[in-house]
Amino acid sequence: MTDDLRLFDANCMLGRIIAPKPGFPLSVGELLRVMDDFGIAEALVYHPLSKEYHPAEGNRVLLDEIAPVDRLHAMWVVMPSHTREFPDEDELVGEMVSLGVRAARVFPHVDSQNFSLRNWVSGPLLQALQRERIPLFVDQEQLDWDTVHEICERYPDLPLVLTNVGYRVNRFLYPLFEKHAGFHVELSNYCGHRGIEELVGRFGAERLLFGTRLPYFTPGSAVGMLRYAGISQTQRNQIAGDNLRALLARVGDA
Cα–Cα distances in Å, from 120 out to 90, 108, 112, 164, 230? Predict the structure, then answer.
C-alpha cells in the first residue's frame, strides 16, 4: 500500500452553519488543517449559506473566502430562474465559466429549496449545464430515482454525481450504471462490506468519486475505505481524484 494518493474531495462544505457541532471545521484554515491531517490534497467546496439561506449569497461569499487558496475549488449551488431569484440559465452558466466555477450543486427537495429537477421545471438549467459539461452534484435524499433516470436519459452529456449514497440502494444504482455513462457516485457514505470492490468489478472505477462529506463526517472512514479496498493502484488513483479532475477539465469543452 502506497501513501501517494492525490486525494480530491468531491463532497465538502465550507463555512459557518446554523447549528455547528463542536470540532466542525468552519473556516478555510480549519478545513485545510483537517485536509492535511488526512492527506487530502484538494477539495471541491460549496458554502452553507447557499443551502441554509440563499444560493446567490453563499456563492458570492464562497468565492471571496477561497480566492487565495488554490487547493479549494468552488462549487455553486444553483436553481432555475423562473422566480427571478437567479439570472437566466445561459447567463448563470456563462458567469460560472468566466469565474472558473466548474461544478454545480442543487437542493431541490421540498424541505430544502423546493423545486423540481423534472424537465418541465429545470430543463433550461440542465440544458445550460450540459452545454458546458458542468457536473451537477445532488444528494441522494434530495430527489427520487425516476428523476435521476430522467436527467441521465435526457441529458447524456451532463455528468450527474449522486452524493451521500448509502450501500442499501444498489438495486437502483446498478441499473443506472448499466444504462447511463454520465451517471457518477460519490463514496463518502458508501460503506458496505467490499462495496467499492463490487462496483469497480461490475462497472469499472471511472464513475466513482472520493468524497468526505465534511464537516458532517470525519474523513477517516472514506479515506480508509479507499486506501484498503481490494482494487488496483490505478483504479484507486482514479477514484481518489483523477476522475474528478477529468470531469472538471472538460468544463467548457463543448
Answer: 17, 14, 19, 26, 43
